[in-house]
Design a protein that fits this description.
The chain has ten helices and 17 strands. The strands form four sheets. Strands 6-5-14-15-16-13-17 form a seven-stranded mixed sheet. A four-stranded parallel sheet has the order 8-2-1-12, with helices on one face. The chain has a three-stranded antiparallel sheet with strand order 3-7-4. Helix 1 runs parallel beside helix 4 and helix 7 (313-321) crosses helix 8. By secondary structure, the protein is an alpha+beta fold. This is Lycopene cyclase.
Length: 370
Protein backbone atom coordinates (compact mmCIF):
# COMPACT_ATOMS: atom_id res chain seq x y z
CA UNK A 1 0.00 0.00 0.00
CA UNK A 2 1.28 3.45 -0.90
CA UNK A 3 1.73 5.50 2.29
CA UNK A 4 0.17 8.92 2.67
CA UNK A 5 3.52 10.38 3.71
CA UNK A 6 7.19 9.42 3.40
CA UNK A 7 9.57 11.31 5.70
CA UNK A 8 13.31 11.16 5.04
CA UNK A 9 15.37 11.89 8.16
CA UNK A 10 14.56 11.32 11.83
CA UNK A 11 16.05 14.30 13.58
CA UNK A 12 13.68 16.45 15.65
CA UNK A 13 11.98 17.90 12.55
CA UNK A 14 11.40 14.61 10.72
CA UNK A 15 10.38 12.76 13.85
CA UNK A 16 7.94 15.49 14.90
CA UNK A 17 6.38 15.54 11.43
CA UNK A 18 6.03 11.77 11.26
CA UNK A 19 4.64 11.63 14.81
CA UNK A 20 1.98 14.22 14.09
CA UNK A 21 1.07 12.60 10.78
CA UNK A 22 0.52 9.28 12.55
CA UNK A 23 -1.55 11.09 15.19
CA UNK A 24 -3.77 12.38 12.38
CA UNK A 25 -4.37 8.83 11.16
CA UNK A 26 -2.11 8.99 8.12
CA UNK A 27 -0.07 6.02 6.94
CA UNK A 28 3.57 7.01 7.31
CA UNK A 29 6.89 5.55 6.20
CA UNK A 30 10.10 7.00 7.61
CA UNK A 31 13.61 6.52 6.21
CA UNK A 32 16.76 6.96 8.26
CA UNK A 33 20.13 5.16 8.33
CA UNK A 34 20.06 4.89 12.14
CA UNK A 35 16.45 5.26 13.33
CA UNK A 36 17.21 4.00 16.86
CA UNK A 37 20.12 6.37 17.43
CA UNK A 38 19.54 8.44 20.55
CA UNK A 39 19.89 12.19 20.33
CA UNK A 40 22.64 13.79 22.38
CA UNK A 41 22.32 17.49 21.54
CA UNK A 42 20.72 19.99 23.91
CA UNK A 43 17.55 21.59 22.56
CA UNK A 44 15.97 24.73 24.00
CA UNK A 45 13.11 26.95 22.85
CA UNK A 46 11.13 29.93 23.97
CA UNK A 47 8.27 28.66 26.14
CA UNK A 48 5.62 30.34 24.00
CA UNK A 49 6.81 28.38 20.94
CA UNK A 50 5.87 24.98 22.36
CA UNK A 51 2.78 23.42 20.77
CA UNK A 52 -0.08 22.32 23.02
CA UNK A 53 0.16 18.70 21.87
CA UNK A 54 3.68 18.24 23.25
CA UNK A 55 3.82 16.43 26.60
CA UNK A 56 4.75 18.85 29.42
CA UNK A 57 7.33 16.45 30.87
CA UNK A 58 9.68 17.07 27.92
CA UNK A 59 10.59 20.37 29.61
CA UNK A 60 13.62 19.74 31.80
CA UNK A 61 14.16 23.29 33.07
CA UNK A 62 12.56 26.70 32.74
CA UNK A 63 14.40 30.01 32.94
CA UNK A 64 11.74 32.69 33.58
CA UNK A 65 13.94 35.67 32.63
CA UNK A 66 17.27 34.69 31.05
CA UNK A 67 20.17 37.11 31.09
CA UNK A 68 21.97 38.45 28.03
CA UNK A 69 25.22 40.43 28.02
CA UNK A 70 26.57 42.63 25.28
CA UNK A 71 28.64 45.28 27.01
CA UNK A 72 25.96 45.44 29.71
CA UNK A 73 23.33 43.15 31.21
CA UNK A 74 19.81 42.71 29.81
CA UNK A 75 16.97 40.74 31.42
CA UNK A 76 14.83 39.10 28.77
CA UNK A 77 11.13 39.16 29.66
CA UNK A 78 10.37 35.87 27.95
CA UNK A 79 10.54 32.41 29.56
CA UNK A 80 13.07 30.08 28.00
CA UNK A 81 12.86 26.31 28.37
CA UNK A 82 15.48 23.58 28.03
CA UNK A 83 14.10 20.28 26.78
CA UNK A 84 14.89 16.83 28.09
CA UNK A 85 16.35 15.39 24.91
CA UNK A 86 15.58 11.78 25.74
CA UNK A 87 11.99 12.48 26.72
CA UNK A 88 11.48 14.62 23.64
CA UNK A 89 12.63 11.82 21.36
CA UNK A 90 10.45 9.30 23.21
CA UNK A 91 7.44 11.62 23.16
CA UNK A 92 7.67 11.82 19.36
CA UNK A 93 6.81 8.13 19.13
CA UNK A 94 6.64 6.27 15.81
CA UNK A 95 5.04 3.00 16.91
CA UNK A 96 2.51 3.06 14.05
CA UNK A 97 4.91 4.18 11.34
CA UNK A 98 6.77 1.93 8.92
CA UNK A 99 10.45 2.46 9.70
CA UNK A 100 12.98 1.78 6.92
CA UNK A 101 16.62 1.59 7.94
CA UNK A 102 18.37 3.01 4.90
CA UNK A 103 19.61 6.29 3.49
CA UNK A 104 17.75 8.35 0.90
CA UNK A 105 19.91 8.83 -2.20
CA UNK A 106 17.44 10.75 -4.34
CA UNK A 107 14.15 12.37 -3.38
CA UNK A 108 11.41 13.20 -5.89
CA UNK A 109 7.91 14.56 -5.14
CA UNK A 110 6.36 11.07 -4.87
CA UNK A 111 9.34 8.73 -4.84
CA UNK A 112 12.49 8.06 -2.82
CA UNK A 113 15.41 6.07 -4.17
CA UNK A 114 17.48 4.53 -1.40
CA UNK A 115 21.21 3.85 -1.26
CA UNK A 116 20.37 0.14 -1.30
CA UNK A 117 18.70 0.62 -4.69
CA UNK A 118 15.16 0.14 -3.43
CA UNK A 119 12.49 2.72 -4.08
CA UNK A 120 9.58 3.92 -1.96
CA UNK A 121 6.60 5.76 -3.36
CA UNK A 122 4.18 7.88 -1.38
CA UNK A 123 1.42 10.40 -1.88
CA UNK A 124 3.81 12.97 -0.40
CA UNK A 125 7.56 12.76 0.18
CA UNK A 126 9.26 15.26 2.50
CA UNK A 127 12.99 15.77 2.99
CA UNK A 128 13.83 16.39 6.66
CA UNK A 129 17.49 15.34 6.53
CA UNK A 130 18.89 18.67 7.62
CA UNK A 131 21.55 20.71 5.85
CA UNK A 132 24.80 19.40 4.43
CA UNK A 133 27.96 21.19 5.41
CA UNK A 134 29.75 23.22 2.74
CA UNK A 135 32.64 25.73 2.76
CA UNK A 136 30.24 28.14 1.06
CA UNK A 137 27.83 28.06 4.00
CA UNK A 138 28.25 29.91 7.27
CA UNK A 139 28.13 27.62 10.29
CA UNK A 140 27.40 27.81 13.98
CA UNK A 141 29.88 26.00 16.21
CA UNK A 142 30.07 25.47 19.95
CA UNK A 143 31.99 23.52 22.57
CA UNK A 144 30.27 22.84 25.86
CA UNK A 145 30.75 20.99 29.11
CA UNK A 146 28.15 19.71 31.57
CA UNK A 147 29.00 20.54 35.18
CA UNK A 148 27.38 20.17 38.57
CA UNK A 149 25.24 23.22 39.24
CA UNK A 150 26.84 23.71 42.65
CA UNK A 151 30.17 24.36 40.92
CA UNK A 152 28.67 27.32 39.06
CA UNK A 153 28.38 29.41 42.21
CA UNK A 154 24.91 30.78 41.49
CA UNK A 155 25.70 31.65 37.85
CA UNK A 156 22.65 33.21 36.22
CA UNK A 157 21.39 31.30 33.18
CA UNK A 158 22.81 33.11 30.17
CA UNK A 159 21.14 33.31 26.78
CA UNK A 160 24.36 34.84 25.50
CA UNK A 161 27.29 36.57 27.18
CA UNK A 162 29.71 38.46 24.93
CA UNK A 163 31.98 39.75 27.72
CA UNK A 164 35.67 39.50 26.75
CA UNK A 165 36.95 37.21 29.51
CA UNK A 166 37.54 34.15 27.32
CA UNK A 167 41.16 34.92 26.46
CA UNK A 168 40.54 35.91 22.84
CA UNK A 169 42.86 38.59 21.51
CA UNK A 170 41.44 42.06 20.73
CA UNK A 171 40.03 42.09 17.21
CA UNK A 172 39.87 38.28 17.05
CA UNK A 173 36.65 36.53 16.04
CA UNK A 174 34.11 36.75 18.85
CA UNK A 175 32.29 34.01 20.70
CA UNK A 176 29.86 34.09 23.60
CA UNK A 177 29.05 31.99 26.64
CA UNK A 178 25.73 30.14 26.71
CA UNK A 179 24.83 28.75 30.13
CA UNK A 180 21.57 26.93 30.86
CA UNK A 181 20.34 24.41 33.44
CA UNK A 182 19.75 20.90 32.15
CA UNK A 183 17.91 19.99 35.35
CA UNK A 184 18.12 20.87 39.05
CA UNK A 185 21.63 19.45 39.36
CA UNK A 186 23.48 20.13 36.10
CA UNK A 187 24.32 23.08 33.86
CA UNK A 188 25.54 23.27 30.30
CA UNK A 189 28.31 25.84 29.82
CA UNK A 190 29.00 26.37 26.13
CA UNK A 191 31.31 28.69 24.22
CA UNK A 192 29.56 29.52 20.96
CA UNK A 193 30.45 31.01 17.60
CA UNK A 194 27.11 32.40 16.46
CA UNK A 195 27.95 32.20 12.75
CA UNK A 196 31.18 32.07 10.81
CA UNK A 197 32.54 31.26 7.37
CA UNK A 198 34.78 29.68 8.43
CA UNK A 199 33.48 29.27 11.98
CA UNK A 200 35.70 28.95 15.01
CA UNK A 201 36.87 25.38 15.57
CA UNK A 202 36.03 23.18 18.51
CA UNK A 203 39.63 23.39 19.73
CA UNK A 204 39.53 27.19 19.69
CA UNK A 205 36.22 27.25 21.54
CA UNK A 206 37.42 24.68 24.08
CA UNK A 207 40.44 26.85 24.94
CA UNK A 208 38.23 29.93 25.26
CA UNK A 209 35.74 28.14 27.47
CA UNK A 210 38.46 26.92 29.82
CA UNK A 211 39.90 30.44 30.04
CA UNK A 212 36.46 31.96 30.70
CA UNK A 213 35.55 29.46 33.40
CA UNK A 214 38.93 29.95 35.08
CA UNK A 215 38.37 33.72 35.03
CA UNK A 216 35.00 33.25 36.75
CA UNK A 217 36.23 30.79 39.34
CA UNK A 218 34.24 27.85 38.00
CA UNK A 219 36.12 24.60 38.57
CA UNK A 220 36.65 22.66 35.35
CA UNK A 221 38.60 19.38 35.49
CA UNK A 222 38.48 18.37 31.83
CA UNK A 223 36.66 15.13 32.70
CA UNK A 224 33.16 16.59 32.30
CA UNK A 225 30.73 15.33 29.63
CA UNK A 226 31.22 17.34 26.44
CA UNK A 227 28.83 18.66 23.82
CA UNK A 228 30.06 19.52 20.31
CA UNK A 229 27.95 21.66 17.97
CA UNK A 230 28.52 22.30 14.27
CA UNK A 231 25.83 22.92 11.67
CA UNK A 232 25.20 25.22 8.69
CA UNK A 233 22.98 28.25 9.17
CA UNK A 234 22.51 28.76 5.43
CA UNK A 235 21.10 26.64 2.62
CA UNK A 236 17.50 25.91 3.58
CA UNK A 237 15.00 26.08 0.71
CA UNK A 238 11.38 26.83 1.46
CA UNK A 239 8.62 24.75 -0.09
CA UNK A 240 6.26 21.84 0.47
CA UNK A 241 8.87 19.12 -0.14
CA UNK A 242 11.23 20.00 2.71
CA UNK A 243 10.87 20.43 6.47
CA UNK A 244 13.10 21.55 9.31
CA UNK A 245 16.48 23.11 8.56
CA UNK A 246 16.39 21.73 5.01
CA UNK A 247 13.09 23.53 4.45
CA UNK A 248 14.04 26.98 5.70
CA UNK A 249 12.77 26.60 9.27
CA UNK A 250 16.17 27.39 10.75
CA UNK A 251 16.54 31.04 11.73
CA UNK A 252 19.76 31.93 9.87
CA UNK A 253 20.71 34.74 12.24
CA UNK A 254 20.32 32.66 15.42
CA UNK A 255 20.62 29.00 14.47
CA UNK A 256 17.32 28.10 16.16
CA UNK A 257 14.96 25.68 14.40
CA UNK A 258 13.46 23.19 16.87
CA UNK A 259 10.76 25.53 18.18
CA UNK A 260 9.63 26.47 14.68
CA UNK A 261 9.49 22.86 13.50
CA UNK A 262 7.58 21.63 16.54
CA UNK A 263 5.10 24.48 16.15
CA UNK A 264 4.61 23.74 12.42
CA UNK A 265 4.60 19.93 12.45
CA UNK A 266 0.81 19.59 12.70
CA UNK A 267 0.14 21.96 9.82
CA UNK A 268 2.71 20.28 7.57
CA UNK A 269 1.34 16.84 8.47
CA UNK A 270 -2.11 18.07 7.43
CA UNK A 271 -0.76 19.18 4.06
CA UNK A 272 -1.28 22.88 4.75
CA UNK A 273 0.83 25.54 3.07
CA UNK A 274 3.08 26.85 5.85
CA UNK A 275 4.93 29.17 3.47
CA UNK A 276 2.50 31.96 2.60
CA UNK A 277 3.96 35.00 0.87
CA UNK A 278 4.59 36.78 4.19
CA UNK A 279 6.63 33.85 5.53
CA UNK A 280 8.75 33.76 2.38
CA UNK A 281 9.56 37.45 2.71
CA UNK A 282 10.41 36.99 6.40
CA UNK A 283 12.77 34.18 5.39
CA UNK A 284 14.56 36.54 3.00
CA UNK A 285 14.71 39.29 5.62
CA UNK A 286 16.25 36.87 8.08
CA UNK A 287 18.86 36.01 5.49
CA UNK A 288 19.64 39.71 5.24
CA UNK A 289 19.99 39.77 9.02
CA UNK A 290 22.59 37.02 8.82
CA UNK A 291 24.52 38.96 6.17
CA UNK A 292 24.52 41.95 8.51
CA UNK A 293 25.94 39.86 11.36
CA UNK A 294 28.60 38.39 9.11
CA UNK A 295 29.68 41.87 8.04
CA UNK A 296 30.11 43.34 11.52
CA UNK A 297 33.64 43.72 12.87
CA UNK A 298 34.05 41.32 15.83
CA UNK A 299 34.56 44.10 18.36
CA UNK A 300 31.17 45.60 17.45
CA UNK A 301 29.08 42.47 18.04
CA UNK A 302 28.48 43.16 21.76
CA UNK A 303 27.23 46.67 20.93
CA UNK A 304 24.97 45.26 18.22
CA UNK A 305 23.37 42.89 20.73
CA UNK A 306 23.12 45.62 23.36
CA UNK A 307 21.01 47.50 20.84
CA UNK A 308 18.87 44.48 19.98
CA UNK A 309 18.16 43.50 23.58
CA UNK A 310 17.22 47.08 24.42
CA UNK A 311 14.27 46.79 22.02
CA UNK A 312 10.81 46.15 23.54
CA UNK A 313 10.16 42.44 24.30
CA UNK A 314 7.39 42.20 21.69
CA UNK A 315 9.76 43.57 19.04
CA UNK A 316 12.46 41.06 20.00
CA UNK A 317 9.91 38.25 19.91
CA UNK A 318 8.74 39.21 16.43
CA UNK A 319 12.26 38.97 15.03
CA UNK A 320 13.26 35.82 16.91
CA UNK A 321 10.06 33.82 16.43
CA UNK A 322 7.67 35.57 14.04
CA UNK A 323 8.19 33.20 11.12
CA UNK A 324 5.07 34.47 9.34
CA UNK A 325 4.95 37.92 10.96
CA UNK A 326 6.15 40.16 8.16
CA UNK A 327 4.99 43.41 9.77
CA UNK A 328 6.58 42.52 13.12
CA UNK A 329 9.85 41.36 11.56
CA UNK A 330 10.15 44.48 9.40
CA UNK A 331 9.36 46.68 12.42
CA UNK A 332 12.00 44.90 14.51
CA UNK A 333 14.70 45.22 11.86
CA UNK A 334 13.83 48.85 11.24
CA UNK A 335 13.87 49.69 14.96
CA UNK A 336 17.22 47.96 15.39
CA UNK A 337 18.70 49.76 12.39
CA UNK A 338 17.58 53.18 13.62
CA UNK A 339 18.94 52.53 17.13
CA UNK A 340 22.40 51.43 15.96
CA UNK A 341 25.31 53.91 15.95
CA UNK A 342 25.87 55.53 12.55
CA UNK A 343 29.01 53.57 11.66
CA UNK A 344 27.21 50.28 12.28
CA UNK A 345 24.16 51.42 10.32
CA UNK A 346 26.32 52.01 7.27
CA UNK A 347 27.89 48.58 7.50
CA UNK A 348 24.57 46.83 8.16
CA UNK A 349 22.89 48.64 5.27
CA UNK A 350 25.67 47.71 2.84
CA UNK A 351 25.64 44.06 3.95
CA UNK A 352 21.85 43.82 3.76
CA UNK A 353 21.97 45.12 0.19
CA UNK A 354 24.86 42.81 -0.70
CA UNK A 355 27.40 45.62 -1.16
CA UNK A 356 30.98 44.56 -0.27
CA UNK A 357 32.36 46.39 2.78
CA UNK A 358 36.08 46.35 3.65
CA UNK A 359 36.80 44.73 7.01
CA UNK A 360 38.31 46.85 9.78
CA UNK A 361 41.54 45.26 10.93
CA UNK A 362 40.84 41.58 11.53
CA UNK A 363 37.13 42.34 11.45
CA UNK A 364 34.29 40.32 10.15
CA UNK A 365 36.23 38.94 7.21
CA UNK A 366 38.53 37.10 9.61
CA UNK A 367 35.54 35.86 11.52
CA UNK A 368 33.01 35.28 8.80
CA UNK A 369 34.82 35.08 5.50
CA UNK A 370 32.91 37.91 3.81
Amino acid sequence: MTPDLVVCGLGPAGRALAHRAVARGLTVTVVDPAPERRWTATYAVWADELPEWLAPDVVAATVPRPLAWGTRAHRLDRPYVVLDTGRLQTALGLADANVVTDRAAHIAPERVTLVSGATITGARVIDARGLARSPARAEQTAYGVIVDAERCGGLDPLFMDWRPDNGAAPGAPRSFLYAVPLDAERMLLEETCLAGRPALTGAQLRARLRHRLDARGIRYTGEEPVEHVRFPVQGGRVGRRRFGAAGGFLHPATGYSVGATLASADAVAAGQDVWPAAARVVHRLRGAGLRALLALPPDDLPLFFDTFFALPPATQRAYLSGRTDLAGTAKAMSALFVALPGRLRRRVAAATLGVPVPARGRGASAMMGV
